[in-house]
Amino acid sequence: MTSSKPFSTVPAGAQQQLTPFELHIDEEKLQEFKTLLKLSPIAKETYENLQDNGSHGKFGVSRKWMIDAKKHWVEGFDWRKEEDNINSFPNFKTKITDDDGGAFDVHFVALFSSKPDAIPIAFFHGWPGSFLEFLPMLDLLRKKYTPDTLPYHIIVPSLPGFALSSDPPLTKDWKVADTSRIMHKLLVFLGFGSSGYLVQGGDIGSHISRQIAATYAECKGMHLNFMLVTGIDANSSPDDNISEAEKKGIERMKQFKKVGIAYATEHGTRPSTIGLVLGSSPVAQLAWIGEKFLAWSDPSTTPSLDTILADITLYWLTGCYPTSIYTYREVKELLYVDKPTGYSWFPYELAPIPKAWAERSCKMVFFKSHDKGGHFAALERPETLWADVEEWVKAAWK
Question: How far apart are CA 2 and CA 97, in angstroms?
């Protein structure tokens, strides 16, 4: 099958059939969701849920924000509009056979170039995000370029367990390395095994990017906007050149580890319980996921309510929350990457690691510090993130 959408012509070197895909949730399923949403109660007032700055406070998301968000979700949010936006981009599905013979349906959005020397770049999302994180950036690119002038192949997959890709197997404790292997196979099957490719990611996507860059020769470099360096000697020393902004970032990281890490502990130690809890109510997911968008973003660049609701609705309609938290129970080994690495530093990141610490874990060829932006960089500042990636590519792709 082929697609008539711009940027949808698959590179000639692709090794297997790709199926054009359009997302359309069955109307009956959508109405069931809306009915459940309307009937789902919001808990009564407590001292804790009344402490807020309009959206969230020291104890978490506020009851007022929940009431307002649910009202808009029921009365104003238009899922079909979100589907139209998703489907305006070339979407594909393909089957990836794992080393043990297992098969995965992998979904991805792509902007394919007609240029024979186009540079392949894969962008990997995190939790509680999805491929939706990168659509604003892809929109910028399709407005700036044509298929004949785009210098890159842009590939944005749904990671296994998220949204529109297959779930991890029921018989195996799935790891970051497993997801990385499937993503690498996807890029090779797209024809980028001989030319090589680049990877970019934040949050879980940063772990996927690092694993791929450290493991597969075909990957020529990585760019991260989340640089967790646990396991590296990251203690400040007199030789470290740490800016005042980075010192504030270290304090933000310390505060996050003190009061913001409870969700990750629950994901890592009781994934079955929290999966069953949050899989039972869209309002529960609104609180659990909505809080992260509010607390992890720069207050000046927080994504719109519709953007937050689109992500949560996608999670609910695909039932992916319980299968999206597998990486949290894994103690991740920090792999050194001896390949050209870029790092974009945003002040409202959860752990905005100073450059002096980050460069101990990689061969850094690009670094840029920004004065605003947070954990969801691709959503909060798509133009800025893309500008950084493009500048890093100049140093990384030789």
Answer: 22
- Residue 173 has which token pair? 């404790």
The C-alpha angle 301, 307, 308, rounded to 5 degrees, equals 90
Say what the pLDDT of residue 234 is: 54
**pLDDT at position 233:** 47
CA distance 145 to 306: 27
CB under 8 Å to 174, separation ≥6 — which residues?
160, 161, 168, 326
Rounded CA-CA distance 189/93 in Å is: 12
pLDDT at 10: 92
The beta-strand segments (E) located in 40-148 are: 56-57, 60-61, 91-97, 103-111, 119-124
Q: Which residues are catalytic?
A: 203, 328, 375
- The residue assigned the tokens 């992998």 is 106
Cite the beta strand spans of the chain per DSSP E.
19-20, 56-57, 60-61, 91-97, 103-111, 119-124, 152-157, 197-201, 219-224, 337-345, 362-369
**3-class state of residue 30 by DSSP:** helix
Residue bearing tokens 């099957």: 189
pLDDT at 333 over 80: no
- Which domains are assigned to the chain? 19-23+88-246+332-396 (3.40.50.1820), 27-81+254-326 (no CATH)
| Chain centre distance of CA 282 | 21
The token duo for 224 is 């991260």
- If you write DSSP's letter for every residue of 330-387 in order, what string do you get? S------EEEEEEEEE-TBSSS---HHHHGGGEEEEEEEE-SS-BS-HHHH-HHHHHH
Strand partners, 210: none
Question: For the segment 5-39, what is each residue's pLDDT rounded down to a tens digit?
Answer: 999 999 988 876 799 999 999 999 999 999 999 99
* Whole-prediction pTM: 0.96
Exposed / middle / buried, residue 389 (Cβ in 10 Å: 0-12, 13-18, 19+): buried
Burial 325-357 (b: 16+ CB within 10 A, else e): bbbbeeebebbebebbbbbbbbbbbbbbbbbbb
Going by pLDDT thresholds of 50, 70 and 90, the confidence category of residue 101 is confident
> What is d(CA 331, CA 207) in angstroms, rounded to the nearest whole number?
11
Determine the pLDDT at residue 309.
98
CA distance linking residue 251 with residue 262, whole number of Å: 18
**8 A C-beta contact, residue 345 and residue 352:** yes
